[in-house]
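Lab notes, practical 5.
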Amino acid sequence: MNAWVKKSVGLANGTGYLDKLSAIYPVGGAESPSRTSKEEEAELKELFRAKDKSKLLQALLELERFPYDEPYIGYFRADESAINRNPKTKKRIITTLHAMGIQKIIAGANKSKSESRKFGQSFRKWICSEWEGAVYTDETRFLRSKGVAFLDGSDKKLKEFATKHFGYRRKKGLDFVALAYGIPVIGEAKFISASGGTQDKSFREGIEFLKKTSGTTRYVAVLDGVIWNRKAKPYTNGRKNLYSSLDNLQPQHIALSALLLKQYLQSLKG
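Output from the prediction step:
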């Protein structure tokens, strides 16, 4: 197994993975609720009145629709044991449910599914805060930087810069462009909240991206979410687990959790 994949799996299946990840991908409040059936209502009301809200969370995980747009729920559904390994995330979710009240919980539980929260801007903000003082808007200053530095700008600006200076040839924008001790590093960041549909497409795009590595430029896929959970089963009809492709990556193909990005960039120091 690729070293960075192995480290990411270890993080995700250890204590506090989602708790730490929430500093990069923060989650806001609940969405406006809709309708629900009376059959669900009685059970959920009883659980809400109980002092132990953990049982309410367990019950809501079994429903098709969680009451609000919570991207970490897909991870808990894939591996319920992760709930107790991430006490801060569990507490935040339970606190949000309590603040919503039972009527909004019931209503939200029957709302039609919505597209998962997009975390692109959250990732950019984290880069700027985590590497404060080493994020440049000026291209010349960025190129002259020593140590680890990031170029700030839109997807388009980063793509154009990487195309001109780092040999990037794809049409898609980039989530980050960095220099680590003189080594160019470009990357995409994706949070995979659950399996299926557009989430699977995002995962495939990330894997396709990192395999474009050529020359001195390093292509990095910063991936997080249910993909690192060894108990995740994106397919139940006998098809191959999509995420198993991570285990077959070559050493030069870098896929890792955002929590390991700093460690990876530091490893490029000569």
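Observations recorded by the TA: The first strand starts at residue 135 and ends at 136. The chain has 13 helices and six strands.
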